[in-house]
Amino acid sequence: MKIVSNKTKQFLVLLLKIIVVSSAFYYIYNKLANDDSLDFGLVSEVVADPKNTLALFALLCLTFSNRFIEILKWQNLSSLIHPVTVGQATKQVLSALTLGIFTPNGIGEYAGKALYFPKKDTGRVIFLNMVCNGVQVIYAIVFGLIGLTILNYTHQFIPPYYLWILYGIAIAIVLLFLSLRHLSIKGYSFNTVIQLLREIPKKTHRKNLFLALLRYASFTHQYVILYYLFGVSIPYFELLCAVSAIYLLASSLPNFQFLEFAVKGSIAMFIFSALEVNQWIVALVATLIWLLNIVLPISIGSYFVLTFKLKK
User: Which one, 88, 181, 229, 250, has least CB within 10 Å?
Assistant: First the structure.
């Protein structure tokens, strides 16, 4: 009976792997087949132009560094449980990305990474993943608010009091956490989180903060390079502010990773309409960013999902 049970379990795991990977690739195919904004002719012209060689090389480097820095961040934190190599961290990050594609805001990534560790460490894996992602969120909020404020001051595409509401919400959330720091939910409180953070070595925190900043710079400059490649002539600092604002607003909305291009694309159209950028170019850039940052990693992650073996 045990042999039958094990075979059944192996079959169900294999079936689940195939469903996840097939669903991911079906969505990618469906998106590309029905996306009118993706003009391969124009993309080919940009790629073939010798003047764009350096910019395209920089774009490829940023595409690689965006995900590789995330791998290094996870290796840095997960090594607190047990030593993890870059190769192991790569499998964990890309598999988790693939598993999280159909869950709101990538929640499935937490479970995906936990599968690579013993069950007794699941809680710690989830906490460390929250630390890994949390620093990225903090940068997105800080730089996003700065970018949104500067951009709205020069172009005022939203009423100023909306910004004050955003600032008020951010301050209220911080004050709420501080006032409820002793409130316990299932044995956990804000003070418990602070204590757990203090248990992480300062060297690990510093490395996490530095890598998160590098990653933020990587993906924001992917946008900057793509817009310049397609002829947008907005000053660098203004364009960077716009990209930071888009990322902040897109990150604050509940969404699924496979719909990320649509969420960010629609917000980008709203903001760039005030900067008089062609809406078609905005849609094209959003699609290309989705291809570079989601489709490519998932294509690799799908292999790791198919070859994954459950820990006994």
Answer: 181
Question: What local confidence, expressed as pLDDT, does residue 112 receive?
Answer: 78
Classify residue 43 as left (phi > 0), alpha (psi -120 to 50) or beta: alpha
The span from the CA of 221 to the CA of 238, in Å, is 13
Average pLDDT over residues 70-87: 92
For residue 19, pLDDT beyond 70: no
**pLDDT score for 3:** 45
Greater pLDDT, 154 or 100: 154
Alpha-carbon distance of 238 to 244, in angstroms, equals 10
- DSSP letter for 158, please: S
| Residue 191, domain member (yes or no) | no
Q: Are 237 and 78 in contact (CB under 8 A)?
A: no
Q: Give alpha helix (H) positions in the chain.
A: 2-33, 40-48, 53-78, 86-99, 108-114, 122-155, 160-179, 190-199, 202-229, 236-251, 260-274, 279-290, 296-306
Q: 3-state class of 49 per DSSP?
A: coil
Assigned domain for 173 exists:
no
22 lies in some domain: yes
Q: Indicate the number of domains in the chain.
A: 1
In this predicted structure, which of 169-173, 203-207, 211-215, 231-235 has the lowest mean pLDDT? 169-173
| Residue range(s) defining the domain that contains residue 135 | 2-161+201-306
